[in-house]
């Protein structure tokens, strides 16, 4: 298969991610869904509310995932057969200068996001971007120290720039798909900026998503316990027939998300995985699932865990900006959830507890979208950094 043909397949498949939910939604609503086109997304209608059966089934799935991640040996994973790992952090490596510069930026941004100081209320409008880029650079600084002077910023600054660009466009894609599940998340402070101001500010905000996730991934890899925990698992090779069925499953889920926006709301985080990864594998491209054929599950699991860890900070900073006050925060990035059937058990978070499991799939989606962009536009997708 020629390179242009492979790219065309990826482009068509990626387009179907948006076309199929749109078609399903038009059929479901005899037109466009409630709230379609509002930016940033607003609460269009109340979700169906709590459902004990749905909640129980989702809890069982979550329990299985938790057991798999916490007790991998129950599922055939083994200890490192090679014994000791010589790649230990050099304690003499100092933190880089951008780590120290970012600490006060994060502290000041955090303070104004939560404190809502009357005379400096306008600062709250602009806290999200400096807070998150400071956090990203702090994570990079920790990776730098633990990885003997190697990090994305120090070794691959152009990759960081590309991550920011792809991150911006990829989260706009998720915002678009959010319309078809009737706004699982929404932003109540849509009048802080003008329409143009919202597009501009949220574009800057979206640049932080992929860099934060990938920094967490690299950080986890500096710990032997994470690095080896999922490297020696069961080998799983798939046939072309399996990939085709997997691809068809993705097509069905993408359409179903639009047609059954409440029952299949979770497909927003899942459909991209079978659809895009199957298309990539069928055309011969590497995916985060490729190493599983040799028993190495670490790529796909660590990116999932990295996103879950980062998700705690997303929810923590978001919830705290509202928690200490009686009125809505003036922070335009503040979001709330309208999740069908599962909206129970909140722990210092707007997100219901089961919603955190969606972060595991979201991280895999992010890596796949990053790879799709790299394969189509011919840039180096390798963000991992190693010593000389």
What is the element layout, followed by pairings?
Elements: H1 3-29, H2 52-70, H3 97-115, H4 128-146, H5 152-155, H6 157-178, E1 185-186, H7 195-206, H8 209-221, H9 224-229, H10 240-259, H11 267-270, H12 272-282, H13 298-323, E2 336-337, H14 357-377
Antiparallel strand pairs: 1-2
- How many domains in all? 1
Summing up helix and strand content along with how strands pair, one would put the structural category as mainly alpha
Order of helix and strand elements from N to C terminus: HHHHHHEHHHHHHHEH
How many beta-strand elements?
Answer: 2
Number of helices: 14
User: If you compute it from the alpha carbons, what radius of gyration comes out, rounded to the nearest whole angstrom?
Assistant: 21 Å
Strand content: under 5%
Please report the distance between the alpha carbons of the first and last residues: 35 Å
Protein name: Small-conductance mechanosensitive channel
Keywords: Membrane, Transmembrane, Transmembrane helix
Keywords:
membrane; 2 strands; mainly alpha; transmembrane; 388 residues
What does this protein structure show overall?
It comes from Paenibacillus apii. This is Small-conductance mechanosensitive channel. The chain crosses the membrane at residues 52-75, 95-113, 119-139, 159-180, 200-220, 241-260, 266-287, 299-317, 356-377. Keywords: Membrane, Transmembrane, Transmembrane helix. This protein is mainly α. It has one domain (3-79, 91-377). It contains 14 helices and two strands; from the N terminus they run H-H-H-H-H-H-E-H-H-H-H-H-H-H-E-H.
């Amino acid at each position: 298969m020629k390179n242009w043909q492979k790219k065309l397949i990826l482009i068509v498949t990626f387009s179907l991610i948006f076309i199929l939910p749109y078609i399903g939604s038009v059929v479901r609503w005899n037109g466009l869904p409630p709230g379609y086109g509002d930016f940033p997304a607003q609460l269009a209608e109340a979700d169906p509310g709590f459902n004990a059966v749905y909640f129980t089934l989702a809890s069982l799935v979550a329990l299985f995932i938790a057991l798999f991640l916490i007790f991998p040996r129950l599922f055939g994973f083994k200890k490192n057969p090679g014994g000791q790992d010589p790649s230990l952090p050099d304690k003499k490596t100092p933190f880089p200068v951008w780590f120290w510069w970012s600490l006060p930026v994060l502290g000041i941004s955090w303070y104004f996001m939560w404190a809502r100081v009357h005379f400096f209320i306008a600062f709250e409008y602009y806290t999200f971007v400096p807070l998150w880029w400071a956090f990203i650079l702090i994570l990079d600084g920790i990776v730098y120290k633990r990885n003997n002077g190697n990090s994305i910023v120090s070794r691959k600054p152009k990759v960081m720039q590309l991550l920011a660009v792809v991150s911006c466009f990829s989260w706009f894609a998720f915002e678009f798909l959010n319309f078809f599940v009737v706004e699982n998340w929404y932003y109540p402070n849509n009048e802080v900026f003008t329409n143009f101001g919202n597009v501009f500010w949220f574009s800057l905000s979206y640049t932080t998503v992929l860099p934060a996730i990938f920094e967490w991934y690299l950080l986890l890899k500096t710990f032997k316990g994470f690095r080896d925990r999922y490297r020696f698992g069961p080998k799983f090779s798939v046939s072309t027939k399996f990939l085709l069925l997997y691809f068809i499953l993705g097509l069905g889920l993408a359409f179903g998300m639009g047609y059954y926006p409440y029952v299949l709301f979770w497909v927003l985080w899942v459909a991209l995985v079978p659809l895009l990864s199957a298309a990539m594998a069928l055309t011969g491209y590497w995916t985060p699932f490729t190493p599983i054929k040799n028993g190495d599950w670490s790529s796909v699991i660590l990116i999932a865990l990295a996103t879950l860890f980062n998700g705690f900070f997303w929810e923590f900073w978001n919830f705290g900006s509202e928690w200490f006050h009686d009125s809505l925060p003036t922070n335009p990035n503040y979001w709330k959830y309208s999740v069908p059937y599962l909206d129970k058990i909140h722990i210092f978070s707007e997100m219901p507890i089961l919603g955190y499991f969606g972060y595991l799939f979201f991280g895999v989606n992010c890596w796949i979208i990053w790879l799709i962009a790299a394969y189509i536009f011919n840039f180096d997708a390798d963000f991992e950094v190693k010593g000389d």
